[in-house]
């Protein structure tokens, strides 16, 4: 009979978190998490191989802090016979964890893309993604009302609450397109992308029935960078995404100062502000050195939840490194001795 007892309030809270949390992870620096943002971003960079990572620690001042992280690798594949085009591929790992029960998302995703040059300065890219994920929690970390012995709360008491399982696996499908512009005579560039995720709408549940369907997530994103002079650039970035009843809009801008432009010694710094509408003001600062980029941002929460967070949204860090292979010259001479 214990397996059929009515769940406690904490049990219902857990189900509520699962249901309302049936949405994908998000980052303030969405533009620095390329493969998760859009599969068509695979291989869309200057260089041959890219490593990227991002970490977010949100709401550490409230009882249920959120930790999110992601890492990715992607590269270009040059094949003979393609007319101004190339294939790309990548892998990404994403994990999100929250609360005393460590309710988590874990997703491993593979992406495949293609980039086609349309004109001297224009490119069109497309990509598809296949991901395998898991939703899980640690039941041993939760406490329930029947662990009250009549006088005090005793965490050593056996609870009658039961779960069919503490993890649920799923597969997800996504795809996207990007239109990219790169000025050949300056650092100015721009792109506009559209992406969709969870097209198969997988069902998730910690029970053998009553699965919660993961809604399709669709999004638009864009970025523009304009070179003002030898040392200064300014940029704008924006994202809109919708998943079921949830909507997110993030807009922002930044300035970038190039302190050194000599090849092999490039050094630049950036600073900017963004706003997640209805939720938080985002301040950011970063440094570029050669093929490395490190950016830190911090959310200042202004939603009604600020009563609990004291306006402290949380820090976020992103790191990127790009490798460029040394390509042999098209023509070369043998040793002149021979």
Provide the succession of SSEs. HHEEEEEEEEEEEEEEEHE
Structural class: mainly beta
Low-confidence segments, ≥5 residues, pLDDT <50?
A: 1-22, 334-338
Mean pLDDT over the residues: 83
Largest sheet: 14 strands, antiparallel, barrel
- Give a count of the beta strands, DSSP E runs of length 2 or more: 16
Proportion of residues in β-strands: over 45%
Report what the structure shows.
With 338 residues, the chain is mostly beta strands. The chain has one domain: Beta Barrel (Porin). It is built from three helices and 16 strands. A hairpin with a 4-residue loop joins β4 and β5 (122-136). The longest helix has 12 residues, at 9-20.
Short summary of the structure?
The protein has 338 residues and is mainly beta.
Question: What is the element layout, followed by pairings?
Answer:
Layout: H1 9-20, H2 34-37, E1 49-58, E2 66-77, E3 85-98, E4 103-117, E5 122-136, E6 167-182, E7 189-197, E8 203-204, E9 212-213, E10 217-227, E11 232-243, E12 246-260, E13 267-276, E14 280-289, E15 292-301, H3 306-309, E16 312-323
Antiparallel strand pairs: 1-2, 1-16, 2-3, 3-4, 4-5, 5-6, 6-7, 7-10, 8-9, 10-11, 11-12, 12-13, 13-14, 14-15, 15-16
List keywords for this structure.
single chain; 338 residues; mainly beta; Porin; 14-stranded antiparallel beta barrel; two-stranded antiparallel ribbon; 3 helices; 16 strands
């Amino acid at each position: 009979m214990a397996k059929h007892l009515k769940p406690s309030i904490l049990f219902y809270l857990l189900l509520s978190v699962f249901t309302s949390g049936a949405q994908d992870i998000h980052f303030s620096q969405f533009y620095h998490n390329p493969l998760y943002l859009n599969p068509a971003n695979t291989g869309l960079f200057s260089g041959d191989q890219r490593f990227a990572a991002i970490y977010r620690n949100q709401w550490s001042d409230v009882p249920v802090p959120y930790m999110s992280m992601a890492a990715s690798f992607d590269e270009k594949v040059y094949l003979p016979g393609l007319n101004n085009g190339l294939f790309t591929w990548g892998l990404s790992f994403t994990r999100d964890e929250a609360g005393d029960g460590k309710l988590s998302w874990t997703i491993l995703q593979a992406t495949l893309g293609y980039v086609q040059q349309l004109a001297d300065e224009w490119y069109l890219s497309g990509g598809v993604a296949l991901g395998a994920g898991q939703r899980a929690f640690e039941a041993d970390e939760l406490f329930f009302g029947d662990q009250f012995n009549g006088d005090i709360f005793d965490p050593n008491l056996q609870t009658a609450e039961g779960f069919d399982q503490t993890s649920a696996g799923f597969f997800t499908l996504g795809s996207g397109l990007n239109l990219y512009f790169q000025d050949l005579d300056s650092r100015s560039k721009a792109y506009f992308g559209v992406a969709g995720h969870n097209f198969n709408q997988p069902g998730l549940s910690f029970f053998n029935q009553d699965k919660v369907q993961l809604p399709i997530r669709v999004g638009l994103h864009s970025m523009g960078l304009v070179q003002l002079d030898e040392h200064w650039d300014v940029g704008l970035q924006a994202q809109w995404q919708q998943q079921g009843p949830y909507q997110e809009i993030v807009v922002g801008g930044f300035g970038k100062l190039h302190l050194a432009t000599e090849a092999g010694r490039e050094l630049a710094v950036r600073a900017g502000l963004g706003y997640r509408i209805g939720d938080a003001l985002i301040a950011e600062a970063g440094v570029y050195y050669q093929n490395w980029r490190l950016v830190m941002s911090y959310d200042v929460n202004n939603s009604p939840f600020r009563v609990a967070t004291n306006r402290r949204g949380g820090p976020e860090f992103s790191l990127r490194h790009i490798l460029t292979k040394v390509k042999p010259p098209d023509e070369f001479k043998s040793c002149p001795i021979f």
